[in-house]
């Protein structure tokens, strides 16, 4: 299964370059709510929160717009997506991007964020 992963032992500095790269790539603007990953703080630790490709979004989609590709990545078919937001509600990490009047979007493990990270915190792995 292909997915975005956080490297162990590497500290995120919360520069938001990964968030910027993701939102710019898919929405042509820097907006943290339009990125398919988030930077979160837990105690003194800051780290990215990324899609683990759990499939809960697909299970919640009433139109069957979210399916798993051969590499294990859940993809949203923009033509089938009705924009209902059920997938966003089902995501345990709040990582589905849902903007008014548009189909939902999510992490597709493209690696744009990993390439943008100056601390090399993120990587795309095949498990």
Describe the protein.
The chain has 127 residues and is an alpha+beta fold. The chain is built from 4 helices and 6 strands; from the N terminus they run E-H-E-E-H-E-E-H-H-E. Strands 1-6 form a two-stranded antiparallel ribbon. Strand 2 and strand 3 form a beta hairpin. 28% of the residues are buried.
Supply the key terms.
127 residues; 20% strand; alpha+beta; single chain; 20% helix
What structural category do the secondary elements indicate? alpha+beta
Shape, principal axes of CA atoms? globular
Helix content: 10-25%
Count of distinct strands: 6
Low-confidence stretches: none
Q: What average pLDDT do the residues reach?
A: 96
Relative strand content: 15-25%
Measured between the Cα atoms of the first and last residue, the distance is: 5 Å
Q: How does the major sheet shape up?
A: 2 strands, antiparallel
Q: Give the strand order, joined by hyphens, for the main sheet.
A: 1-6
Provide a count of the helices.
4
């Amino acid at each position: 299964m292909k997915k975005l992963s956080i490297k162990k032992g590497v500290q995120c500095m919360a520069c938001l370059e990964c968030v910027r790269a993701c939102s710019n790539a898919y929405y042509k603007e820097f907006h943290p709510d339009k990125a398919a990953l988030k930077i979160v703080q837990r105690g003194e630790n800051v780290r990215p929160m990324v899609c683990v490709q759990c499939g809960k979004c697909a299970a919640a989609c009433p139109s069957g717009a979210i399916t798993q590709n051969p590499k294990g990545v859940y993809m949203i078919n923009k033509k089938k997506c009705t924009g209902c937001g059920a997938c966003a509600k089902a995501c345990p990490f709040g990582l589905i991007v849902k903007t008014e009047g548009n189909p939902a979007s999510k992490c597709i493990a493209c690696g744009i964020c990993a390439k943008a990270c100056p601390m090399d915190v993120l990587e795309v792995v095949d498990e």
